[in-house]
Design brief:
Strands 1-12-11-7-8 form a five-stranded antiparallel sheet, with no helix packed on it. It contains four helices and twelve strands. The chain starts with a helix and ends with a strand. The longest helix has 23 residues. A hairpin with a 2-residue loop joins strand 3 and strand 4. Helix 3 packs antiparallel against helix 4.
């Protein structure tokens, strides 16, 4: 090979490297999209109040219910060891720190609320997760996820959700078990609260359509009292309204 040919190859190689470096230097920064549900204070009815951290309270003699929307960032911070392994993260409520390569950010896996029921002096009250509905401004009525397939025929559940996405390896089985273990520890399931009890857990729903801007968390048929035959004698529907705020930033910027 003569000197002129070698020089030509070198120039082409350098040009190719320069082009690759140039492409890398102008690659778009990672996008962060946060969908936040913010309480609508002016739509709260009698007996309701709003705390500074965004917790909505319903309170009457002998009992109190507290509800707050929980962001993906908060859920990841609650379970950091389950949220930092990319696509193999085992946080059951989020995708952890995995980034969708096509979207350029981490989408929401679920819409999550935390609910706490305090029974101070009443004999027995009951929040049944099977009666909870998330109503949207586009007419959707989303039912809360239950734990397993046998918990409610017409409800989505975490067991089916993750089995459908589980691979056939032993590693995948372990991830499934780890996720379900966290679900069983943290999901709001047994709603009966006797005198002196405090019940707390998550209520989870499908992720919201991008066009949805308002939702109402409806705790329907919340039992305030039972009769002598242990049948509900008094029920109420508790309504917690939210508006949606979507924040979009680039990595490293606020």
């Amino acid at each position: 090979m003569d000197r002129t040919c070698r020089t030509g190859i070198l120039l082409v190689t350098l040009a190719s490297i320069s082009t690759l470096l140039g492409c890398a230097s102008i690659a778009p920064p990672r996008i962060q999209v946060r969908s936040l549900l913010v309480p609508i204070a002016e739509e709260l009815g009698d007996g309701y109040s709003l705390e500074q951290d965004g917790t909505m309270i319903y309170q009457r003699s002998g009992m109190k219910v507290a509800v707050r929307a929980v962001s993906d960032d908060e859920l990841n911070a609650m379970y950091p060891q389950h949220s930092s392994n990319g696509g193999a993260s085992t946080n059951p409520y989020t995708y952890g720190n995995w980034v969708d390569p096509e979207m350029g950010y981490t989408p929401a896996r679920f819409t999550v609320f935390t609910v706490t029921v305090h029974n101070y002096t009443l004999p027995k009250i009951n929040l049944d997760p099977g009666e909870v509905v998330l109503t949207t401004d586009r007419g959707h009525q989303l039912k809360a996820y239950l734990t397993g397939a046998g918990d409610g025929q017409d409800h989505p559940n975490f067991e089916d959700y993750y089995r459908e996405r589980m691979g056939r390896t032993g590693v995948e089985e372990n991830r499934f078990l780890e996720r379900m273990g966290l679900v069983r520890q943290t999901l709001y399931v047994d709603g009966k609260a006797f005198k002196g009890d405090v019940k707390e857990g998550f209520l989870a729903f499908d992720p919201l359509d991008p066009r949805i801007m308002k939702v109402r968390l409806e705790l329907r048929n919340f039992v305030m009292a039972y009769d002598a035959n242990d049948w509900p004698a008094e029920t109420v529907d508790l309504i917690f309204p939210f508006t949606r705020e979507i924040e979009e930033t680039t990595e490293g910027k606020e």
